[in-house]
Design brief:
Blueprint lengths: L1 H15 L8 E4 L2 E5 L6 E12 L2 E11 L4 E12 L3 E11 L4 E12 L2 E11 L4 E4 L3 E5 L4 E5 L1 E5 L4 E11 L3 E11 L4 E12 L3 E10 L4 E11 L3 E11 L4 E12 L4 E11 L4 E5 L3 E5 L4 E5 L2 E6 L6 E13 L2 E11 L4 E5 L3 E4 L2 E4 L2 E7 L2 E16 L5 E14 L2 E18 L5 E17 L2 E7 L4 E5 L40
Length: about 500
């Protein structure tokens, strides 16, 4: 009986060497039985069954071998090995030796190096060398401690590449990813995602509709409606590159950084954000929009930079080069600006100009005390000058070394002039008719205004004063030294903050 069994085995092995090596080879079985009940000349193999095709070995407890179709059905303790690293186990295997398609069912475990796949149904296409599951599966990468589940998955052993689709969830020690479609390159340790994708970590929430994550270098890129949300900021951009290890992000195109604590948004073409020290930089059509109760403040500069002060509690905004700003009733320009939320001070550097309540204020340096979007006081240092236009030929003027201006509801109420004080204003009668031009000078003086009209001047030293009737003066020469009317540079609406031009200084 044993010799007869070996004879049949030898016949099968001989046929397996024919037809260019595609025939299945039965390497071993404890028993072989011809089963005519199946109607297809099946051979039943029982006990420690081993099949081989090329470099692939297939094991099971029992099998039906169909020599005419070069296929078999394997039952219990099914195992497929290929090479040194890859093995596949399951409860049932249908294998077609001609197409080299293996269909595995039940308690499936595919191991390839440090990667494991668990599922209930798996089709393995040996000719093209890929495996696919369609009814849910789980991938575990032991080396990187990453688990991934999806409705559908395709695995390419040669390239260690996975394709996942439908309810994809990737869980690691540091983050969780939910995506519609995801590709995973295990060799390069890179994850690509397509369609709506959400990434959560302890301190970040990320959304995009396309991107990748390089786990080895902790570098990511998120594109198409990309958004990053942390404890106090929302970051948007056409594309965002983020280093999760260093918590540093770069944003490109339609950049928006919103500070939810201070209620302002910075927009631009390019942005940089360092989460660890909470610094941000935006360039290219950079625009800060600060929300107040009734209106908004718009600030533009070639570069906008945000940081915290030394206490790490109060944010500071820096604006560099060609700075302009606008809000209802207030506009200005300067070379650079610093806005501190801690003391509500706005500092303007290098020949700033401010237009407020019909007045133009200039000086070498200014600082504004802001509260709730309203100016409380405005300090001007060196070459201070205030101009108020009466009409196209008449300008009220105040100049001095330094000035402190007190405002109420955005209107000038009191001006303290310290050093080289000079005034030139058109005096009026109660009915509004002009009396003449009053010119006065004193080292220090205080001006009180009512409805933007001079109502009282107090001199702290003996002034030099002169009142001249209008018919006795040349209006084209009524200008204090340093006069420079810049109304053409004033932003009249939010979009004007992007327009930069300079008015030539009037010759004295």
């Amino acid at each position: 009986m044993k010799s007869l069994f070996l004879f049949f085995i030898s016949l099968i092995c001989l046929s397996a060497t024919a037809q260019q090596g595609k025939k299945l080879e039965i390497v071993h079985a404890d028993d072989l039985i011809f089963d005519k009940s199946t109607g297809n000349n099946a051979k039943r193999l029982i006990g420690n069954v081993v099949f081989k095709q090329e470099n692939t070995f297939m094991y099971c407890d029992s099998a039906y071998f169909y020599s005419e179709s070069n296929s078999f059905d394997a039952y219990q303790n099914v195992k497929v090995t290929e090479g040194e690293e890859m093995s596949l186990t399951g409860d049932f295997l249908n294998y077609d030796g001609n197409t080299k398609i293996a269909k595995v069912r039940g308690n499936i475990l595919l191991k390839d190096g440090e990667t494991e796949l668990r599922t209930e149904t798996l089709d393995f296409y040996r000719e093209e060398n890929y495996a696919i599951y369609r009814n849910g599966g789980q991938i575990i990468n032991k080396k990187d401690k990453v688990t991934l589940t999806s409705g559908l998955g395709i695995y390419f052993p040669d390239s260690k590449y996975f394709h996942f689709k439908d309810s994809v969830v990737l869980i690691s020690e540091d983050y969780t990813i939910y995506s519609d479609t995801m590709h995973q390159n295990n060799d390069a340790n890179i994850t690509y995602f397509f369609g709506p994708t959400r990434i959560y970590s302890d301190s970040l929430k990320i959304y995009c509709e396309k991107g990748y994550f390089d786990q080895t270098n902790d570098v990511s890129e998120f594109v198409k409606n990309a958004e990053i949300v942390n404890e106090n900021q929302i970051i948007l951009g056409d594309s965002i590159r983020y280093n999760l290890k260093d918590d540093i992000g770069e944003m490109f195109g339609n950049v928006e950084i919103t500070d939810t604590t201070e209620d302002f948004t910075v927009k631009g073409d390019y942005g940089f954000h360092n989460k660890k020290d909470s610094t941000s930089l935006v360039t290219g059509h950079a625009l800060l929009i600060q929300q107040f109760d009734k209106d908004s403040f718009y600030l533009h500069g070639d570069t906008l930079f945000s940081e915290f002060d030394s206490t790490r509690k109060n944010r500071i905004i820096h604006a560099y080069k060609k700075v302009k700003f606008y809000k209802e009733g207030l506009a200005g320009k300067c070379d650079s600006l610093v806005f501190s939320y801690g003391d509500s001070l706005i500092k303007l550097f290098q020949n700033p100009t401010i237009w407020a309540d019909g007045n133009q204020l200039t000086g070498n340096y200014m600082q504004i005390k802001n509260y709730g979007g309203k100016i409380r006081w405005l300090e001007m240092r060196e070459n201070s000058f205030i101009i108020t236009q009466e009409d196209s030929t008449k300008f009220n003027q105040i100049s001095g070394d330094n000035m402190m201006n007190i405002l109420d509801e955005g209107k000038l109420k009191k001006i303290n002039v310290k050093g080289n004080g000079k005034t030139l204003y058109f005096a009026k009668e109660d009915n509004g008719n002009y009396i003449g031009v009053n010119q006065a000078s004193a080292e220090n003086l205080v001006i009180i205004l009512d409805s933007n009209e001079v109502s009282k001047i107090k001199f702290y030293s003996t002034p030099k004063s002169k009142l001249s009737p209008l018919e006795q003066v040349d209006l084209t020469k009524l200008f204090l030294p340093g006069f420079n009317w810049k109304i053409s540079e004033k932003p009249m609406k939010p979009e004007d903050v992007f327009i930069w031009k300079s008015t030539p200084k009037k010759e004295e």
